[in-house]
């Protein structure tokens, strides 16, 4: 860890407090996990395309249900 703080002394001219450098590294290394992100991608790529398609395999009575499913995913 001391080497990393030493490295930052060369980058910022030694102006930042080592504790501040550590806090900044913690912020930059934070990983955000969106649990519903895969559902949103699936809804956008498949459900919306299927609901708005004009193909014969879509039953018109089911189209409203597909749009509701898409809205629920969003």
Quick structural gist:
With 74 residues, the chain is an all-alpha fold. It has helices at residues 2-12, 18-28, 37-52, 60-73.
Count of domains: 2
Mean pLDDT rating? 76
Task: Enumerate how many helices there are, as a single number.
Answer: 4
Whole-angstrom Rg = 25 Å
N-to-C SSE string, H for helix and E for strand: HHHH
What is the rounded distance between the termini?
A: 43 Å
What's the total number of strands?
0
Question: What general form does the structure show?
Answer: rod-shaped
Structural class of the secondary structure composition?
mainly alpha
Please bin the fraction of helical residues: over 70%
Largest sheet report = none
Oligomer: single chain
Q: Ranges with pLDDT <50 over ≥5 residues? A: none
- Indicate the proportion of strand residues: under 5%
């Amino acid at each position: 860890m001391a080497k990393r703080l030493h490295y930052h002394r060369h980058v910022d001219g030694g102006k930042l407090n080592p504790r501040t450098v550590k806090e900044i590294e913690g912020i930059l290394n934070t990983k955000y996990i969106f649990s519903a992100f895969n559902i949103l991608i699936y809804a956008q790529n498949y459900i919306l395309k299927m609901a708005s398609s004009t193909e014969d395999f879509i039953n018109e009575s089911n189209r409203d249900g597909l749009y509701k499913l898409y809205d629920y995913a969003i």
